[in-house]
Amino acid sequence: MNFALQNTLELLLIIGLGLLLQKKVAKQDLKGVKVIILSVALPAVIFVALLKIKLDSSLLIFPLLALAFNLVMLLASKYLLNTTLSKEENSKKRTIMMLMPSLAPGLSCFPFIAIYLGDDSVALAALADVGNKIFVLILLYMVAMHWYQKRAIKDLQTSTSNKLKGLGLALIKEPINLVIIVGLLLLSFGFNLESLPSFVQNTALHIKVIMTPLILLFIGMAVRIKSGEFGLILSLLTRRAGITFCLSAIFILLFPALSTPLILLLVVFPQSSCSFWPFAHMSAISSMEEEDKQPKPTFDINFAVNILALSLPFSTILCIGIFSFSDFFINPTVLLLIGFGMVTVSFIPFVIEKIKKSKASELSGQFNTYAGIDTHSQGSEEN
């Protein structure tokens, strides 16, 4: 059996086991599983991966590329993703601009990179995530506070500066970021994995083993999609993925000498699910607005929850699909075609809805015309 197909079937089987466990695992229990993944298992994987690479100043390009991607997607969210929403849905538009440019590779991307590409690619992805973290923790918070202060009753500049300091500390204290800092420091002093005491090596390697099955089980147990806005969110995520494929294709065309693993990394990493951090910023602002008794909220929190719920399984399916058919996805022409196709398909529900509304208004106008004629004729007969 094909190696990629075999791996894919194994991953799907573990996700299926997670789905079967949904009824036995409460939502609050999932938070504990998530803490273990993000604070123990994933840091161990990144630590081992980092200590296997050779430190080079050229590696700084990866966080810069991720940050540049975030900023481009922020513009795309404003001018492409928001076009299908009406002018009155400003809170949803702001919510989209907060969530869609963000990435959460830890749960949706890293396990598949580790399985299909190996530790070297995981290390590069972890470095890229540093740029993404700066964007979601600091820049998006500043954007959210800017929107809030424009609409707020009272000035909160002091609390904003305090919050930014807190976010800076959170950026440093997060286990994944701490591991990256420690790993880079060890590499800069000439240490690698073999240089460490055997008990440290073995501990990291043992913990590393649990990451992939634990994340896949978590994905299966966590998938609980609410209906209502399913079609709209699915079309937005499809458009986001299409734009991302196009951006990856353009970069690959500009640098044709890239290796196959690096091309796949550039294709898969931007397809990560939406990050939870923008949701945390929006929730904090929503709480402040409740205190201020703002009649119109800055963000649509329920809409944000639904986006996060659908984003993780959507990205999981994309990542598995990309690696399962990697021969297609390393071709920039194919990527462009897939990207344009997904963007086009994402607009179809909007066009259909427009046509339905147009026909409904025409029928309503015809009905009113006929009703007017009948009323006029009845009046003539009575006279």
UniProtKB/TrEMBL annotation:
Kindly list the residue ranges recorded as spanning the membrane. 6-21, 33-53, 59-76, 96-118, 130-148, 169-191, 203-225, 301-323, 329-352
- Keyword Membrane belongs to the record: yes
Which UniProt keywords are present, listed alphabetically?
Membrane, Transmembrane, Transmembrane helix, Transport
This protein's name: Permease
Lineage of the species this protein comes from: Bacteria, Pseudomonadati, Bacteroidota, Flavobacteriia, Flavobacteriales
